[in-house]
Amino acid sequence: MQFTSQPANRLQRILNRIPVLGDVLRRPLGALGFLIVLGFLLMVVLAPLLAPYDYARQDTSRLLEGPSHDHLLGTDHIGRDLLSRIIYGSRIALGTAIPSVAIALVGGVLLGLLAGYFGGAADDVIVVILDSVKAFPAVILALAILALLGPSLINEILVIGLAWIPGYARVTRAQVMSARHDLYVEAERSLGATNSRIVLRHILPNILAALLILAAMDLPVVITFEAGLSFLGLGVRPPTPSWGVILSEGFNFIRQSPWPITWAGITLLLTTLGFTLFGETLRDVLDPRLSGTGGMS
Amino acid sequence: MTPLLQVEGLEIRYHTREGTLTALRNVDFDINPGEIVGVVGESGCGKSTVASSVLRLLPPNGQISAGRILFKGEDLCRLDDEGMRRLRGKEISMIFQDPLTSLNPVFTLEDQMLAAQMAHLPRRDGSDRKALRARAVQMLDRVGIPDAAQRITSYPHQLSGGMRQRVMIAMALLSHPALLVADEPTSALDVTLEAQIVDLLRGLRDELGTAILYITHDLGVVAQLCDRVLVMYAGNVVESGDVCAIFERPKHPYTRALLRSHPAQSMGAERLTTIPGRVPGLKDLPPGCLFAPRCDQARRMCHAVAPVPTQVGGQMVLCNAYRPGWEGAGDDIAPRPEFTEMLLPATSDTRPAGDEVIVEVRDLRTHFRDPIALLSQILGRKAGAVRAVDGVDIAIRRGETVALVGESGSGKTTLGRTLLRLEDSTAGEIVLEGQAITHLPQSQVRPMRARMQMIFQDPTSSLNPRMKVGALLLEPFQIHGVPVEGRAKVEELLSMVGLSSEQADKYPHQLSGGQARRVGIARALALHPDILVADEPTAGLDVSVAAGILNLLKDLREKLNLTYILITHNLNIVSFIADRVAVMYLGKVVELAGTRDLFAAPKHPYTEALMSAIPVPNPRLRDVRKRIVLQGEIPSPRTPPPGCPFHPRCRYVQDRCTRDAPPLCSLNRGERLVACHFPERAGNGA
Questions:
Q1: How many angstroms from the chain centroid is the CA of residue B55?
Q2: Residues B357-674, CATH architecture
Q3: Residue B126: what pLDDT?
């Protein structure tokens, strides 16, 4: 090895010692995705330190301004600092999106495994319930339930989680149904394995990759959905900032200033990109067939 | 005669992430008009690359880096894409290995066959559709599709595998091509269908004068079909010549080794001969002669000096042994053995066959009912059923090996699975060591599974792709709660099946087919079962690798006193390993006999036909040996024919056969059972 490449070697060695994340970071796109995700997570935690102003502080003399020295990203229609609002908005965005996608993932996977593996009556009942939930547009469903329970952050998370369950359950069910007939499942059965062992130890790890990708791609969708709910007054209340609120408020003043929706849009885009890149690399790393450890055949 | 196709100094390279790999080196051969040239070799030797380079259908990263491919005097390497397109399907056609995926499922045969013809017409004119259709029907008829005029309107899924392969051949021949390239067209088919296709191809050659380039790994088929043979190893043609010369006077050590490892060469032998090691990957080719590391005659020179093609007798051979100065080439260097022979020496031929019956089935039936809507059930419609196993009686003694043979659809796999309670039986009884297990709930069957194990047909996909070999081998112990010292047990199991301990850290996709098969066997034997059901243990493996697996199974049987139930359609391996054979047809056992008796004189017409369909690796026999080519295919087990299930295809059929189903009766007095009204006819040619 050449002398100059020693620092890179040291980095390689460190990465080699970290089991999964190390493999993700060794791929350029995976590292980029991880950095973006990490950046947003830091933003959530360190919001009070990072934000230059209080997110609710109004400066009525400077409305809808573009980027300037005082306000790096400009101001909104009532003179609040956009940078501070976007930084604090990450708390709402990720604080609703991650838990609700997690609820959808866990609930959907459980239902999908039951329906897909056992089939028969259990399958019929679960599919009918899923279809009924799916038959309502998500917004209508959320409106109805939030009207019943009253708007709050917790309720919002639950509602979004519920509305997203059918998608995960469907994907899981389809994957399980095909995996159930795979020869390795049959082989396990012939060894005398119980159903729960087959499902949890053999089928689930094999289908998790598709679900991880789905979850990574759903996060930004859920963030915008949350924005919609906030816009309808069912989510967070002003002046609490969320990216969705910034988007929808900015939209009313698009002729006066493009900056609010531009920044909120870019933020959403970056989040999507980060989670998708991270998710896809994670999938590749978790699948031994794709991780490049094999020979050419 | 000027050759139809001349391949000169062909070199193919693949550009991959690991650098540029040379897949073919210096390949020279000719094909004359109307000649059938076979290409044989193990997997990974470049056979299919030869086939696709002739049609210039290499993958995008493949490149013809040197040499010429002259077709009727025109260099195909210089032709542009449009010129090549004109040639494909018109002058040169191809048939592929997998007939199930080579036809488009959303078009009828008619659509596909007309489109194939119209692609080569000067103008798209609807007026002669009728003529094109007539041609298509005629061609389907020629390849033996019954009711071609009606069948042409069906979709691919409505045809069986054998039919689809015929349709592929018909499509390839529509334009009367001068050259047909066939890439393993029969390896997915039963021996009986294979015999039909081989006969068909020979007939078409005689009739239409089509030259055929036939890629296969089966030496038996080559001997049956080909005029000339190219033997390939690691991207080189190592020997080429006339088919009789290759089979009778093979010159290259690789050719000899391939021929020796064919199970038909060692009927009744103690062990099969294998070729140690495996075909080297393109990344790590050895220096000198590529075959030297596996060659039993390699000398020091072979590991350093690459051989040059030499004319020996009528053959072209790529081997150092034929170059001058071989005598001074140094000492013999024995190849490293494939695995350590740590097993007991094989005992004498007659193994102690106890009288203790270990497992017995009585009138076993397994029917798969069609799913039927609740409403139709209420309205009194009856669901049809596939009678996969339809009344089987058999008693298997401890320590013996019983082979279940028959075509696909004969119910042999279902019988094996039902025996293990992996499938629920419809009627009948399964008795394991005196205990009826037919209706035990799964929770009680589960602990019993340790005593009866199965190895599955597809070795790689029966292993969970996300688990390492070590973890896979410990699964049985965890499932049955047997405390075990992990690493040591894994190594013990691996060495039992002749694998080194570093395989424990590999994932299934990193194993070769033979290694994956060995891991499957090790896992099945981990808990010391009494009974092992082996479903096509050599399917998809190269002959030499298959020979290694069969040797292993035989050794393990002696060592662990196992009872085998061997499910296979390959009668060659049956003769090597089985004590008794049960021939199955449409869910019933039609003949049950000791292996020697069965091979000496088959008594059921179906057995007789199956045995005569085995491709024997001897080209001289192909015109002498009387072959009984079974007409048609096995009927659907949904609607078995009345009377004797075999009567529609039987050549001795009498009136009585269409009415009464013959029971499985003892012949004369002995153990031999046959289900035929006229068992004396078979074998006498009456």
A1: 25
A2: 3-Layer(aba) Sandwich (3.40)
A3: 58
Residue from A191, A194, A207, A212 to probe the interface with B (highest B Cβ count within 10 Å)? A191
State whether B507 and A288 contact (CB < 8 Å): yes
> Are A294 and B21 within 8 A, CB to CB?
no
User: CB–CB of B122/B150 below 8 Å?
Assistant: no
Dihedral (Cα; B670, B671, B677, B681), 10-degree rounding: -70
Out of B62-76, B430-444, B614-628, pick the least confident: B614-628
Structure tokens at B277: 């090691």
| pLDDT above 70 for B332 | no
Task: Please name the member of B18, B480, B509 whose beta carbon is closest to the beta carbon of A192.
Answer: B480
Q: Which residues pair with B583 in a beta bridge?
A: B405, B591
CB atoms within 10 A of CB B113: 23
Mention every residue, 6+ apart, whose C-beta is less than 8 A from residue B139: B113, B170, B171, B173, B174
Question: Is residue B126 within 8 Å of residue B199, measured between CB atoms?
Answer: no
CA distance to partner chain A, nearest, from residue B448 (Å): 8
Range B354-358 average pLDDT:
80
> Rounded to an integer, what is the distance from CA B73 to the centroid of its chain?
37
List all residues of chain B from 35 to 54 with a beta carbon under 8 Å from chain A: 44
Q: With bands split at pLDDT 50, 70 and 90, how would you rate the model's confidence at B353?
A: low
B587: number of Cβ within 10 Å = 26
For A187, nearest residue in chain B (alpha carbons):
B462
Q: Residue B344: its pLDDT value, please?
A: 35
CATH 3.30.1490.20 for domain B1-91+177-281: no
Instruction: Judge whether B1-91+177-281 and B357-674 match in fold.
Output: yes
DSSP for residue A81: B
B396 Cβ neighbours under 8 A, 6+ residues apart: B357, B358, B359, B360, B402, B531, B563, B565
What's the domain range around A39? 33-286
Q: pLDDT tens, B90-128?
A: 889 888 877 677 888 888 888 888 888 887 776 655 567
Tell me the per-residue pLDDT of B148-186, one tens digit each, with 9 for 90 and over. 888 888 888 888 777 888 888 888 888 888 999 998 888
CB B407 within 8 A of CB B634: yes
Global pTM reads 0.80
Per residue in A217-236, pLDDT tens?
Answer: 788 788 878 877 877 777 77
Identity of the residue in B16, B479, B509 whose CB atom sits nearest the CB atom of A193 = B479
- Give the distance between the most distant pair of CA atoms in chain A: 77
Which chain B residues have a beta carbon less than 8 Å from that of A205? 466
Nearest to B652 by CA among B611, B630, B672, B682: B682
pLDDT for res A5: 45
Domain spans, chain B: 1-91+177-281, 103-174, 357-674
Amino acid occupying residue A116: G
Closest CA to B190 of B219, B214, B160: B160
pLDDT in tens, B582-591: 999 988 999 9
B668: left (phi over 0), alpha (psi -120 to 50) or beta: left
CATH number at residue A270: 1.10.3720.10
Half-sphere exposure of B626 (CA within 13 A, CB side): 5
> Mean pLDDT across chain B, nearest whole number?
84
Q: What are phi and psi of B263, to 5 degrees?
A: -60, -25
Asked if pLDDT for residue B510 goes beyond 90, the answer is: no
If 0-12 CB within 10 Å is exposed, 13-18 middle and 19+ buried, where does residue B591 land? buried
pLDDT of residue B686: 38
Contact call for A184 and B18, based on CB within 8 A: no
- Strands annotated E in B448-595: 452-455, 531-535, 563-568, 580-585, 588-594
